[in-house]
Write a structure and sequence with these properties.
76% helix; elongated; mainly alpha; 0% strand
């Protein structure tokens, strides 16, 4: 085993846990806290959008960092317990979700909200613009959940031990 493997694997675990935790906190509590403490739902939505954009950009950075760490951990350890192919696939899925959130879903939500004549809370729930906005909000939530599951999956894949059986010294060889 080379010197960089344990550190790379530790940083892979820490980075994936940090990323998953940040996304999970926003999904479970952050957005709600902002909406409750903001002066209005509209202002809360603006703050949440800025936070989500920050998480999207952070996801781009984390994908690059975790890919580099996974490659380093994989090439540094002989034999490696890291399923590199699966980790790369999860990173690609998370990257696609972040791109969809930042470049497709969020801009469309903003455009729909800007087309509404009044604040979104005052728009009837049966209004086609409000329904379209709600559908996009669902897609945005789904993209966030995909990233949470990807980051969590990477953490568990990096944390697992190799299933290979280590050979024990032969009896009578004198080395234990």
């Amino acid at each position: 085993m080379r010197k960089g493997a344990p550190l790379a694997r530790t940083l892979l675990l820490f980075g994936s846990a940090l990323w998953c935790g940040a996304l999970l906190f926003f999904a479970v509590a952050g957005a709600r806290i902002v909406l409750k403490t903001a002066g209005s739902r509209h202002l809360g939505g603006l703050v949440n959008r800025a936070l989500l954009d920050s998480l999207d950009f952070a996801s781009f950075g984390m994908v690059a960092l975790l890919l580099a760490l996974a490659l380093l951990a994989r090439t540094s350890e002989e034999p490696s317990p890291l399923p590199l192919g699966l980790i790369v696939r999860l990173l690609v899925v998370a990257l696609a979700a972040a791109f969809a959130s930042l470049l497709v879903i969020t801009p469309e939500m903003v455009a729909l909200r800007d087309r509404m004549p009044v604040a979104i809370d005052l728009v009837d729930k049966a209004d086609p613009l409000r329904m379209a906005w709600g559908r996009l909000h669902g897609y945005s939530s789904f993209a966030l959940v995909v990233r949470i599951l990807s980051a969590g999956g990477i953490f568990f894949l990096a944390a697992r031990r190799s299933r290979r059986v280590r050979q024990l010294p032969q009896a009578g060889t004198g080395s234990y």
